[in-house]
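Anyone have tokens for Xyloglucan endotransglucosylase/hydrolase 15? Sequence:
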Amino acid sequence: MRWTDFRAAVGQRINVEGIVFSARVFFNDRHLSLPHVAVRDIRCIDWYELHRRGFKGVVFDKDNTITVPHSLTLWPPLRPSIDKCKDV
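Reply: yep, here.
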């Protein structure tokens, strides 16, 4: 089976690229995989301040973080914070 066939067969069930990237970060840049900020929710984050301090990106866990479980729709109260994050 070719790689592209495998990816098509697996589809959304397994995020192979995400797993490979996470393993690469864990083994090569472990400090990037440690939480740097803990907040009640993302509405408490000052995105401009994070950027000013040198942060280049953030990682969100979708379920119970920015959506309700098993949903693809952003939880509406978080929209302004997500928009600020994208702007920064």
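The longest helix spans residues 16-28.
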